[in-house]
């Protein structure tokens, strides 16, 4: 039987899970997770056993306040995934790049991950805001601060891409008589003098193996969709149902056409929180138990699915065949439990339906996603790299 179009799968790693009460249902303490990468390393290995395309790992400000007054923090995502690169061989590794950081540092960090993983890196540009700014930005959404934050994200993304393009294919760097030697003919400095972001000079890390690590961007509305349209090769969206997914796909494709990128390869991923069990009743019971521990029902920017792996396969198949999704980024409510259910239950069911790979056939993230290697300065309408507005 010939294999038809197959969907892509990714998983979001978020502490003990996407549900705020997930940490209360584990033997470990939050402090132990913050001080060790073991939790996420185990999850990345498990995801690779399931042949998933990639994992994402978020960053945040080093310390931020939870609503119950606890101070929370995260390990730096690119460093954790750099360790995971040594412990895996095929799965893609996608950390966040926060707009509040220097674009040159982010570019070097992600390029280093691409080298360490032999071409398995991606990155997710994300607006870096304080809780106070977030409240102001979303009330109302599309207000001046919201627009300003995404204008900054646009410049930041262009700057990072420009640093990767500053090393042309074949450029070499070495020591010469105790000094630094660069073949200047093969270097094209980044050049961006924006309102929010400035970038100049060349990256400190040579050209990544993929040309550019895969750019993945999350969007919820027109303004972030515009950023997706201009720069993303993978777009994460958060539909409520099939009709909503179709509307989002149409809007994003329209914006991509406006940006002159309609013919460029692009993968649309729908995000979904998942709570899985052997029966729908048991899954609903798990969700209710977590909600009771947290003191309120689980709400998220993405929809919540509570059911069986087979039921989830039905849901994904509908969104894939009828909703226009190319793939899915699943957010386990409890990382260990739900990731095991995805690998041991969902993946075999999708394989049985001919909807998911039975083995890795590529070695790079671009290969998994069917994306070509990025050419030098490969950004329509922006000249080379970060230059040209």
Structure description:
The protein has a single domain, classed as TIM Barrel (Alpha-Beta Barrel). The chain is α/β, with parallel strands linked by helices and 389 residues long. It is 38% helix and 19% strand. Helix 6 runs parallel beside helix 7. An 8-stranded parallel beta barrel has the order 1-2-5-6-11-12-13-15, surrounded by 9 helices. A two-stranded antiparallel sheet has the order 3-4. Belongs to the NtaA/SnaA/DszA monooxygenase family. Residues 35-319 form the Luciferase-like domain. Residues 370-389 are annotated as: Disordered. Keywords: Flavoprotein, FMN, Monooxygenase, Oxidoreductase.
Query: How many individual β-strands?
Result: 15
Strand order of the largest sheet: 1-2-5-6-11-12-13-15
Mean pLDDT: 86
The CATH class, by name, is Alpha Beta
- Describe the global form: globular
CATH topology: TIM Barrel
> How far do the termini sit from each other?
49 Å
Structural class: alpha/beta
Contiguous helical run count: 12
Which percent band covers the strand fraction? 15-25%
The CATH architecture term is Alpha-Beta Barrel
Rg from alpha-carbon coordinates: 21 Å
Low-confidence blocks of residues: 61-71, 174-178, 380-389
Biggest pleated sheet: 8 strands, parallel, barrel
Family: Belongs to the NtaA/SnaA/DszA monooxygenase family.
Protein name: LLM class flavin-dependent oxidoreductase
Region (Disordered): 370-389
Keywords: Flavoprotein, FMN, Monooxygenase, Oxidoreductase
